[in-house]
Design a protein that fits this description.
Layout lengths: L1 E7 L18 H9 L9 E7 L4 E7 L12 E2 L5 E9 L2 H12 L10 H10 L9 E9 L4 E6 L8 E4 L5 E4 L11 E4 L4 E6 L2 E6 L16 H14 L7 E4 L4 H17 L6 E6 L4 H13 L2 E6 L2 H6 L1 H8 L4 H19 L4 E3 L4 H5 L11 H13 L5 H10 L4 E3 L5 H8 L3 H4 L27 H6 L7 H4 L6 H4 L2 H12 L4 H5 L1 H4 L8 H13 L3 H4 L23 H6 L2
Parallel strand pairs: 13-14, 13-16, 14-15, 16-17
Antiparallel strand pairs: 1-3, 1-9, 2-3, 4-5, 5-6, 6-7, 7-11, 8-9, 8-10, 11-12
Length: 568
């Protein structure tokens, strides 16, 4: 994981704002300084490449996980005509390298996983996107053609923003903060998309167009194949040349990833112990279950405690890092941000996590209120397609704030396509007689709690992966599981900073995504101080349950009826 920053001039020159002291800077000095706003993403190396005759500058902030000594970026092709800055991981890079060697009838040894993007571009041009699997964003410049190629992974696991300055020059950055003071027109780059051309003639193409987006799937679930697909996804995500660990909240998603990773690593080393971490207030609900899992898989487990004051202190910092004012995102990000700081202090650079399962399998508690299978599927599609504005954004920026890479096997493209192509009747909580009989999913054997959310995921890993209490535990949203006091206190703390009159005038003050609670207003005020241009506010999506299904508008899982009933 890294950070990328680039400028592409429309005319061959770039008019630069002066430094805070009024000093005039060269293009190299300016882009180095401006990229420094996201240097936390890549503390191992900063690389700068200029094409001064074209008014082009490309910067990469590197976090080295693969090709430690050979993978510095920006990279150039052997001729020097193709320049690449990439962020993320290409999980099938070894297979790609073998194919390149076969086609060229010569030995092709990539300098790192990202290097294969250059090799594929040389062989296939922009159609290379159909051959890579991973989480990524990249900027590629072809000096000979004077052309740009920019792309983002299918789900949008890695952040990317585009901006235009007053002269029409194109700016690209992994984080918006690099564009403050440079661009007034800023947009989030859409997932599964590539764009090519020149700054004033960019063509956008959607390269990821699976059928499940527009069609209700009819494939019945196959638990054996579901298990195999997730195991394959985890295996591919374990490529790493540095020590790594796993986040372990005690929920079924992160617990499954930790358990599968442990089984795979013990194929190589029977004594392997995965380093796992959980976070919360003392007495938090998650600790009981994360400890169960840690004992079950014999991981090297650490519980990290934070106080209410610790969390409240870093609200402005987390809004600056997240580049969001969404309530759900902020509530959940603060514990993750504090946990990431601790993990990085232990010398780790990568962790595995369970993000994405709730969107794919309808795991949020409000999905129990889905009126029918079609609505259920369409809502999961919406949630998956908005991950780049919600959980992917939170997970990436909370961890990368400390130079810690987070990998998400549930969002492996092959796994997403397989799981989203399972008919919604099998994925949704069994709430009506029209749903499948879950008691006969596997050889007619009776199963536990057939109406629970994410049933088929749990059933696929019923044997020897997790303790029974964890496998069949009701969904507890992360911001709740770290301790119920956390949300209760952050709501009251935020409200104390906003008076009634301010909230009454909210629509006039903030016409875009107008806040309707004092908590939302407070976050929006801080965001506005950091990102004053109006276009920055448009990049944020507010995460709310489906109130038209009769659900509470409060994004906390504790506000949903099924949680209230279970804890009555």
């Amino acid at each position: 994981m890294c950070g990328i920053f680039a400028v592409f001039s429309r005319t061959g020159t770039v008019k630069l704002p002066r430094s805070a002291s009024g000093r005039k800077e060269s293009l190299r000095e300016f882009v180095y300084r401006q990229s420094g706003c996201q240097r936390h993403r890549g503390p191992d190396h900063t690389g700068v490449v200029l094409v001064p005759e074209h008014g082009v500058a490309i910067v990469q902030e590197r976090l080295a996980l693969l090709g430690i000594r050979t993978g510095a970026q920006p990279m150039k092709s052997s001729t020097g005509e193709v320049i690449l800055a990439a962020n993320g991981e290409i999980y099938n890079y070894l297979e790609i390298a073998k194919e390149i060697s076969r086609r060229r009838k010569t030995s092709y040894v990539p300098r790192s996983d990202s290097d294969v993007i250059i090799g594929l571009y040389e062989d296939f041009g922009r159609s290379l996107l159909h051959q890579i699997t991973g989480m990524f964003t990249f900027v590629l410049y072809d000096r000979t053609k004077k052309s740009i190629l920019i792309a983002r992974d299918p789900i949008g696991i890695i952040p990317l923003y585009l901006g235009k300055d007053e002269e029409g020059n194109l700016w690209v950055a992994s984080e918006m903060k690099c564009l403050v003071g440079v661009c007034r027109d800023v947009k989030a780059f859409p997932p599964g998309t590539l764009c090519h051309g020149t700054p004033d003639r960019l063509v956008f193409e959607q390269f990821y167009t699976p059928k499940w987006i527009t069609t209700i799937p009819t494939h019945q679930s196959n638990l054996t194949l579901l298990r195999k697909k997730l195991e394959n996804a985890v295996r591919s995500h374990l490529q790493c040349d540095v020590p790594f660990g796993a986040l372990l909240s005690g929920g079924v998603d992160s617990s499954l990833i930790a358990s599968i990773a442990t089984k795979i690593m013990r194929e190589r080393d029977p004594n392997f112990r995965l380093k796992t971490y959980s976070v919360g207030l003392r007495g938090a609900p998650d600790f009981k279950y994360s400890r169960m899992v840690a004992d079950y898989i014999n991981s090297d487990h650490t519980e990290v405690y934070f106080t209410i004051e610790d969390g409240l202190d870093c609200i402005p910092d987390i809004i600056r890092h997240l580049e969001s004012y969404d309530i759900t995102t902020i509530r959940a990000s603060i514990p993750m941000y504090l946990l990431s700081r601790f993990i990085k202090s232990e010398g780790l650079k990568m962790v595995l996590s369970g993000e994405g399962a709730d969107e794919i399998f309808g795991g949020y508690l409000y999905f129990h209120r889905a009126p029918n299978a079609r609505d259920f599927h369409e809502e999961t599609v919406t949630r998956v397609r908005c991950l780049h504005l919600a959980d992917c954004l939170r997970a990436n920026k909370s961890t990368m704030a400390w130079g810690l890479e987070l990998r998400v096997p549930f969002l492996d493209t092959e796994f997403v396509n397989f799981a989203m192509n399972i008919r919604p009747e099998d994925r949704m909580p069994a709430a009506t007689d029209q749903m499948i009989s879950r008691k006969t999913l596997e050889n007619g054997k009776p199963v536990e709690n057939p109406k629970i959310e994410k049933y088929i995921l749990r059933a696929a890993f019923r044997d020897n992966y997790l303790p029974h209490e964890v496998l069949w535990r009701q969904k507890e949203q992360f911001s709740d599981g770290v301790g119920y006091q956390w949300i209760d206190t952050i709501k009251s703390f935020s409200a104390a900073h906003v008076d009634d009159q301010e909230l009454e005038n909210a629509e006039e003050i903030f016409p875009i995504n107008t806040p309707v609670t004092k908590e939302a207003f407070f976050y929006r005020q801080i965001f506005q101080e950091i990102f004053p241009a109006e276009s920055f506010a448009h990049t944020v999506m507010k995460w709310v349950p489906r109130t038209d299904w009769g659900c509470s508008a409060d994004p906390s899982g504790r506000a949903q009826a099924v949680h209230i009933a279970a804890h009555a």
